[in-house]
Amino acid sequence: MSTETKEKTETRATETTGRLIGVQHRKKQTKEGEARPTILWIEDGASTEGSSGVQIELQDDLAELDFVHGKLPTLWRAVATGENLTGIERHHIHFREPEDNETLESVSSIWPLASLDLEIKNRGRKNEKCKLLGIPAATAAAFTGMRQGDILLSIFGGSGHKLMVALINKATEIGACVLLTSPHNLKRAREAARASKDDDASTLVLMYRATPQMFHEMFERDVVTWDVLHAWDMTEEAMKQRLVLVQRAEEAASYSVYASREYVGSQLAQKVLDAKMGDKTVTDVIQSEKEAQEKLEESIAEHPLYQRLFSGIKGVGPRFFGKIMSAVQDVRRFPRKGIGAFLLFSGQAVVIVNGKHTIQRFRRQKAGENYPTPGNPTLRQAIWLLVDLQLSRQKDSTVWGKRFQEIKVKLRETHPYPELVCDTEIEIARSSAQIPEGWKIVFGKDKSYLFPEGRIREEGGKRILIVPPETIQLKGEWKTANGLCEITLLDGSKDYRPGTTRYTKIHIHKIAQRKLATEFMAWVFEEWWKFVEEQEAVRLRSQPAEQ
Questions:
Q1: DSSP 78-119
Q2: Domain spans of the chain?
Q3: Staple 342 to which of 303, 334, 430, 477, CB 3.0 to 4.6 Å?
Q4: What percent of the chain has pLDDT over 70?
Q5: How far apart are CA 147 and CA 328, in angstroms?
Q6: What is the pLDDT of residues 4-56, one digit of tens each?
């Protein structure tokens, strides 16, 4: 955050006279059926730190929208018999079940039909049926919601982006403001306050009072980012629907060909395709996916970040940008000096696995592994595809292609020859033997090696020879098969050593890809943050004119 932005935020914090509202968005129900309502913590902005606040739980989407538009019921009153409730939202009326002697005919003579809870079947038809489900008992008498001067506090990312869009739009309309901070900052504040995660709404308010510079104000123009996220979600959903329907249509088409009694011979595939494409549901879902893709591309084309960072990079199209946005959402989720957290999230950071430093960028987690592969899987895959299929193949024709070649040259200068990292634990086969010169280990027919020193370890009925670590530069001819390296010596004889090769051509290529991926995402992080800071500075300079 720029100095100018920090000063503006701190000034707002000290001059707050409206309410401070912490917003902890949660999915309304877990898979186990546990209620998880969105929580609001509301304090008077002019009061001192530690003052009491009010907690409100928003049980469903209706409650969230009610709060946004100032229609959230806070007080209920009894309904007079026969009262006309036309124009009142149905979810603002509490209904009671009718008594046994209360029928639609008897109740409709007292109550307007618009006030009753009715179930209507076959509406508008001759056989229309109407059933009485409920009679009004209470209705909302007082409401609360967003109002001018409110400061709403939440976090970047998470499940609440739809709610954030509604809050930002309403805040722009009524003169409130929405401030977001990174989940990392909230976690640190939670730990410092020794608070529970369920208290995040109140922790956000406490955090804002103490460190307002940790928050970023959101504007109506920021909604374009959520437009991209929504368009991406719709594209992914359309693709899933297409895959399911096409598979179902293929099965139906295949069955119809088999059941037709007509011999189609080599035209089977074409007949199935014709039958499948003749299914209107298939053509409709394909068209729906196409429209979703077009809408995504339109949303991305309008996004200033795409125009600034990615539009000029060969190989980076709407799909890649959509994947980055769907995963990261907003770079302000990560602290300005938190590039390590960003690289870890994108799968481009060195991590420690089983006590060793390793980079898990281009691998999938294997079955049975007891540690997770770090990084967002969608983003990690997108980066791998970009580097492997695009940037590393562009050679000197682009900036990133040229950088890839430079990395490879530097790696080869550092490691001029491939190396064999010899195994230090070797199973002793039956044909192996200990001789005065050491241990002669046989790996196969005419394949053996004499180890001058080593010690024996018994393990699971097997004998393991433990030898000192050794790394061999492979300057001449060599080849590997099944973990055994055959090395041709200067005199034409051959040595056989079990081990792992490194710094081969393909290894250098893969290392360069990994380094390029890290550099690319580090560049994305820095440029994205610069873009955000420039946007915030422009907004601050234009605020007096707008007000």
A1: EPPTT---TTS-GGGEEEEPPPTT--HHHHHTTS-GGGSEEE
A2: 3-71+145-218, 224-388+521-546, 419-502
A3: 334
A4: 89
A5: 31
A6: 555 555 555 545 568 999 999 887 666 677 778 999 999 987 776 556 789 99
Tokens of 3: 């100095």
How far apart CA 20 and CA 43 sit, in angstroms, is: 5
| The three-state (H, E, C) secondary structure of 270-283, written as one string | HHHHHHHHCCHHHH
Query: Looking at the predicted structure, is the pLDDT value of residue 141 above 50?
Result: yes
Q: Is 259 exposed, middle or buried (0-12, 13-18, 19+ CB in 10 A)?
A: exposed
Q: 452 Cβ partners below 8 Å, 6+ apart? A: 437, 438
Torsion of CA 4, 163, 144, 186, to 10 degrees: -50
Give the Cα separation of 162 and 223 in Å (integer). 10
Count of beta carbons in the 10 Å neighbourhood of residue 491: 6
* Cα radius of gyration rounded to whole Å, the chain: 33
Q: Please state, in angstroms and rounded to a whole number, the distance separating the CA atoms of residues 440 and 430.
A: 11
Contacts of residue 410, Cβ cutoff 8 Å, sequence gap at least 6: none
Phi then psi dihedrals of residue 73, to 5 deg:
-65, 135
d(CA 345, CA 351): 11
Residue from 82, 79, 139 nearest 107 by CA: 82
**Residues 203-217: what's their mean pLDDT?**
92
Given a contact cutoff of 8 angstroms between Cβ atoms, the answer to whether 326 and 229 are in contact is yes
CA 260/CA 252 separation, integer angstroms? 12
**CB 374, CB 344: distance < 8 Å:** yes
Q: What is the pLDDT of residue 424?
A: 92
Kindly tell me the burial class for residue 480, based on how many C-beta atoms sit within 10 Å of its own C-beta (0-12, 13-18, 19 or more): middle
Residue 480 φ/ψ, nearest 5 degrees: -125, 150
Class of domain 3-71+145-218: alpha beta
Cβ-proximal residues to 316 (8 Å cutoff; 6+ apart), any chain: 310, 386, 390
* Contact predicate 405/392, CB 8 Å: no
Distance CA 354, CA 499 (A): 20
pLDDT > 70? residue 73: yes
- Show the tokens assigned to 71: 């229609």
